[in-house]
Each structure stands twice: as structure tokens, then as C-alpha cells.
Amino acid sequence: MIQPFKKKLFGVLLVSFIYSSLSAQQVYETLPPDFIKTIEFYGSNSEFSGTPIISMQESLELKFDDLTAAENDYYYEIEHFNFDWTPSVLAKNEYLEGFDNIRLFDFENSFTTLQPYTHHELKIPNQNTRRLKVSGNYMLKIYNEDRQLLFSRKFIVYEDLVNVNITLRRSRDLNYIDEKQVVNFEIGRDDFFFRNPDQTVKTVVVQNNDFNTAIYDLKPQFTQGNTLVYRYDQEASFWGGNEYLNFDNKDIRQGTLRIERVELDELYNSYLYPNFIRDGREYVFNPDINGAFRINSVQGEDDDIESEYAKVHFSLQNYKDLNGGEIHLYGRFNNYVLDDTTLMKPSEKEANLLTNELLLKQGFYNFKYVYLDKNGKFIEGFISGDHDITENDYQVIVYYRDIGARYDRVVGIGYENSENIIN
Questions:
Q1: What domain range includes position 231?
Q2: What total of structural domains would you count in the chain?
Q3: What is the pLDDT of residues 151-173, one digit of tens each?
Q4: Count of Cβ atoms closer than 10 Å to residue 383 Cβ
């Protein structure tokens, strides 16, 4: 059984007179069961699903489909976490105004679709959960009526207390100058003073909303007045990757530029044109949405309940020696998880062809092929290649726990795009 591309749970025993002698365990997102599909989770400041990063004034929306179409009862809870995703010591009434552990009331059955499903939605704040009181890391958990955890998703709430200015550069290491992108940044504001920043300030640098490859806890190299300066090279570098591939089956009955043919069995089957290895080829700009997806259908008026589910067939011409490793599909369509469902397998009909099929709701999808070596090491550019000029989104998230404070606040967020890369 292939393990998802996430760190395994582990216990961290805190033996300290300052904190406690109890153990704290880092928490990870729970993957949904097979009958839960198309989880969309986004903030009011974003049009694409991902790990929402919202201000204290913004809202959240969760959408998902239940393929049992049984109008099951589901409930939600919200929990607060520290920077390292260990549970915070805050009581629920310290971070939440109102109540959670409430049933999801907003649901509809699909309309005129071959695959029946029940579409559920949740908006926060609502009449029960009126406000999140503090910033920081949160987890939204969805339970069934038997109190079994079905799935969970992270989100982050921030306060706009400091400026985060980002500069994107090419690597100073000549071995990677054409393949890597480096994130330099500065944190500060005249009216905000960091006390003992080496201990109280923590950062996360994220590429394309993919926390699997994020860089954690860089320390400021020096200060200029109230400004913390981070000018790392190797420590703050990301592989540039390549633009995501895409397909669009919003018109479920017709092939498109990316879809070779459509067949109707019990469900629609969308067969994509075969892809090829891009590593070693010249970079070609191809506009993408950096791994995201959007549900869309031209057949109905309500995309949420009138979009069909289709079996999407992927194929990759591969002539590289995998040396015991595996190739997987990768993208935000399943929250960047690698498991058995994303594994590309040898075709029974054609040599050097790897294939897979996923049940996906109609829409526009970004995806790429990535490599896991036999030791479980993730190599994104093995198939797609790496380029210093690839268009990528970057975020820097700044956490601060003042001396004597009980939780990690998120005091600032910075955004930049590698279209503005320099040197």
C-alpha cells in the first residue's frame, strides 16, 4: 500500500518544566473515503480551492459531493493549532464565537446526472459559528452521524500587522541557476516591534499553495530597525518546475484540444491525448492556474449539482528508467496527495505507456506527473523538468508568539509571482 505524500504522524514528548510533561502530537489532514469527491475549500479572497489563507474579516466556504446520494447527516468542528500543527492550549471559547459541532444543513441532490450525488456546502461564519476570534492555524473536520471523522482540511487565519515584502531571484548556485527560484523577503512595520525574533518569529514559504514542498521556520539573518531580513539562497530555494498540464471537459460530450475522444458507458469517459516527458526540453510558456481546478459545465445552469462525473483517462509516454520508483498524477484536485489512486501503471496494450483513470467532476483541471523514487523521495522535475522562468505563485506566512503568549498568531502574509523574478 502506497503511503500518501505526507509526513507520518509522530509523538513529540515535551519534557520541560516551562511547558509540561505531556506529549503533543502533530496533526495531519485526514483523507476522505472513496465516496466523498470534489472537495472545494477556499476563502472569499480566492477563486480556486486549496488551503485557504484568509484575514480575520474574510469568510470560508467548503463544498463536497457524497456519491452515495443518501442525504447523509454530516457535522463540522473547528480546532486551533500551533505553528507546528500540534494542538494549541486555547479553549474553544477563546478562539471561536458561537458554536461548532453543528449539522451541515445546506445540501442538494444532483439533477439529471448519470452519477447521482448529494452536494453539501458550508459557509463560515454562519448563524452558529459567528466569528473566529484569533489568528493562527486551524483545522476544519467533517464527521458522519456516528461521530467518525470523514476528512479534514487545514486553513490559516491572519492579522495584517506587518508588511511582508518578497523578492524572487534565480539561484546563486551556478549548478541550479536555470532550474531554481529563490525567495528573499523582509518582515516589518514601523509600529510593530518583534521581541527576541530568533525565538518568537517563525515563517512558512509556500509555492503554489502546495504545503508538501513548503520551507519551514527560516530564521532572520539580520535586522534593519524593526525589519527582519531573510536573504537565504539554498535554504530558501524551490525547484522551478514546469507549467502544469491541463484538460477541460466542461462540454462532457465532445473532445477538445486536450481530449482525444469521449465514450459513454455507464458514465462518460474522457480520454486525454498522451503526454510525454518534458524534462530536457526547452521551456514553453503555457498559461496555467498553478495546479488548481474549477468545476464548470456548459450543459446546465448550476455547476454544483448539474455537472457530470466522468472517468478521465490519463496516459504518459515514458522512456526513462524508473529504477524501482513510481510516477504519479499530481495537483490540487486531491489536495496534492500521492496514493494508490494517483499511481500511473504500465499499459497492457502498449509498451512504454503508463496509464491511470480518475473519477472527476466536470471542469477545468491542472495536473502534472511527478516521480517517487524507491526510497519515497519526491522529485517533481523528473518528468516535467525544472526551469528558472516557470510562472509560480509564492506566499510567505509569518507567525509570532510574544514572550509569555499562549498561542502562535499569524501577523502577516506576503505574495509574489515569479513573473517578477530578477537577476
A1: 163-240+389-420
A2: 3
A3: 999 999 999 999 999 999 999 99
A4: 24
